[in-house]
Amino acid sequence: MSVSKKVSFIEDEHKGEDLRQSALNEVKPSKLQDIHERMIEQAVCRALKTVESEWGSPPAHFAFFVMGSAGRLEQSYYSDQDHGIVYDDDSNQFEDYFMRLGGEITSELKAAGYEECDGKVMASTKRWCKSRTEWQKQIDQWVKEDTWETLRYVLTLADARHFMGEANYIIELKERLQHHLKTKPDLLKRLTENTGRVKKGIGFFGQLLTEPKGIHQGKFDLKQTVLFPYVNGLRLLALKENIMATSTLERMKKLPAAYGHIKSHQLSFQELLTHRLSFQRGHKEYAGIHFVDIDRLSSSDKQRLKEWVREGHELYQYIENVLMKG
């Protein structure tokens, strides 16, 4: 049975290396994301072609989805892998095929410059490659166990974005999450608690706080300190308001008018995504891309970073208070 979204194997005019170089030279977030989309699509198509040559066409309809920064359409010059597969098979008789496909996708993405996820959030693992029925059971089990680890999986899945195949399969997963949110009033509070506090970014004397030790000592954590307060806060609000959009900006736009205070930060967050690229230009690999040498920043850039830190932290605290009150 072939994939509902027919995959074309027509060669792209650019080779993978050319696309990667184009990505490194891009300064606009939206155009950079377009390049990532092409690179990921090419990798998935190569993987599917390889598996089809060995095992034949997919034996059931399926969907491939991405999570993390790819799911949110917020990738920087480099990013790691976060993805999964859901397939139409109640008896799991096709598990071997789709596990093989997930493994090949992981290998192709790595070859294209996407590092494997440290947390193994990839379709090459059984946790993230399951039939529709088994996915439903797994979500139910995650919520039932209610541990730090399983709630992290729920939050990770909340950023899932359909990439190829049956889009309605991803909608089913999101609807299952919403079912639990509606029937378990405390679940959203538990997810908020799991998200945790934001990382402090400004010191007592108004200075940007850098890493005190480790391989990134002396550098500023742009991801955890500046970006994540917006990302994490809007993810939680999207769950509360049953917003299917995955990008932080789209989640802001789709919030009800009652959240006017939060919606007003759209332009600021868009500027943050653009400036992030200017801060990260020149990095040659994924490792360390989220850590900025503030000594190389201008006074105006440092001041703008401080404004984003304050704004993001205030925004997240506001959202946290709303959600914890119920």
Automatic annotation (TrEMBL):
Protein-PII uridylyltransferase N-terminal domain mapped to chain residues: 25-147
InterPro entries: DUF294_put_nucleoTrafse_sb-bd, GlnD_Uridyltrans_N, NT_sf
Domain spans labelled DUF294: 186-319
Highest taxon above the source species: Bacteria
GO MF annotations, alphabetized: [protein-PII] uridylyltransferase activity
Full protein name: CBS domain-containing protein
Source species of the chain: Alkalihalophilus marmarensis DSM 21297
